[in-house]
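Agenda item 2: magnesium ion complex prediction
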Amino acid sequence: MVEDVTEQMRIGDRMHRAEQLSAMGLLAAGVAYELKMPLNLMTVDLNFVENNIAEDSPMRDYVNSMKDELSRMKQISEHLLNLSKPEDSEQEVFEAHKLITSHPIQITLNRLQKNGFNVVTHYSDNTVKIRAIKNQLVQVLLHLIANAEEAMPEKGTLRISVDTLETANGPYASISIEDTGIGISKENIKKIFEPFFTTKGEKSTGLGLMVTYSTIETLGGTIGVKSKPGEGTTFRIVLPGVRE
Ligand code: ADP
Ligand code: MG
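Presented output:
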């Protein structure tokens, strides 16, 4: 296992951050909502310009670049809107490992294996039951897997484990996603859950882990990270189990 370079975030930090996030989520969603209309109008106008300039016009490069930037702005505002969007699906009770055996996760793991990654999964077939919107948690895992893949440009091992923790407060489900990628520096690890923090340049929004964080908080769970630069990173989600 990778060595700890940072402490997991302490409970107090988590609470504080959760409050900040929910206020931020509402504000962000409000702004994103207001931006939707002007962004759509600009897209319509830009399409008009595109259709009315000569095929070989030097303006075409500028139009294309504006289209790229517009679609990036739309992507960002959609992400922000999703933050506080009430989920229309129902919560259900299911065994934690059913997330891993779900179709979207299996397809993704198969693709990684085909592309030369070593994929290891570890779980029993009677893990503790959790209450959640399954698809929302599948999205969270898909995002953590995507981050792991992006952290391993030279390939490597992705390990996903689901365990049941018995505590005095009842059972919990623990889900970890471990990679052997580039790792996260001590300086950056404090910022990864912040909105717009990314080390991946223009193409990335830096919103994935923030959305992940607020999804897990909403379920009364916690997410922690351990990393060692050059060796790898482990994200661990702990969710309250349903007592039977
Ligand atoms: P994005 O993927 O768009 O950059 P995220 O919120 O998903 O945004 O992640 C924020 C940052 O956290 C990433 O840019 C990267 O620096 C770091 N990060 C997240 N997951 C990993 C990982 N598994 N290994 C290394 N760095 C990671
Ligand atoms: Mg990401």
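Discussion summary: The radius of gyration is 20 Å.
Owner for follow-up: CH.
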